[in-house]
Amino acid sequence: MPADIVVRPYAAGDEAEILALWNESLWADPIDRFTWRTRYLLDASFDAGECLVAVDIGANTVVGFVLGMSNKPSTSRTSQPPDAWVVGFGVDERFRRRGIGRALFDRLQARWSNSAISRIVVGPYIPSYVNPGVDERAYPDAVTFLLAWGAETLSRPLSMKASLTGYRPADVIVPLAGRLQSAGIRVRPAEPRDIVPLLQFLERHFPHWRLDAAAVLMDLMGTDPRFVTMHVAEEHGTLVGYAQSRHERFGPFGVNEAYRRRGVGAVLLSATMLAMRSQGFHSAWFLWTSDQAAKLYRKHGFD
Fold this sequence. Notes:
The protein has helices spanning 15-25, 33-41, 100-114, 140-149, 173-182, 195-205, 210-223, 264-278, 291-298, and strands spanning 5-9, 51-56, 61-70, 84-91, 120-122, 158-163, 185-189, 228-235, 238-246, 249-255, 283-289. Helix 5 packs across helix 8. The chain has 9 helices and 11 strands. The protein is elongated and about 70 Å long.
């Protein structure tokens, strides 16, 4: 890295320059100042020491950044890996291929190594990920950089979208829901009495999604229910699955592992899409799923 470039923690006056760099480097995933503040600066896990910037000393300008997040004992609801995430990074195009990106990543890795963090994942920081990974088509140079730095491919997540215009449930849904109900499993819209049991269900089975679901419940049960949905699956009063949406974004949704492969997820998905259509939305989309789960979504019109 050039001698006239220094790496330091984020400072309050860096916001505008970081946003400009973000939107130049991550051009397919732009953010504005409100997103920066609400998703990242005000996140309980934000630490200025994990948001590093590279500064050109002579011009006193930010020419690179990396935003990291890590589990904190007071905020993390799970002890499961991954322990740390790189949410976004970029270097001014005029300063690339000078070792600045490597210096930012090495400094962040050193900090995390001193905190006994052993694995760093690029992308899927929940709830505030921009992408569940690195888009190979949009950012081929970033992929090359990460591989040279020593990163490996963990998985290949898919984003999908479906039209809600004229949406009708697949023919199998009504009889499937009937069979589930005969077995004691019912899918229905969430009610106020579900708040505590649902949060407990999430704490137990999907802890990373709890805060996102709580925000949807806050709107649904209190402030403004017009743009959110929440459905639950229950067996004799015990919650075994849920699905949510906000505006045109579907999910997250999940089913207790013991109840999977019985059609519970398919009925939850269909009920949510019908509810989204009734709210006037024309499409449903999400950013992240696996090849295996994509088979379910394709049956409901996602591609």
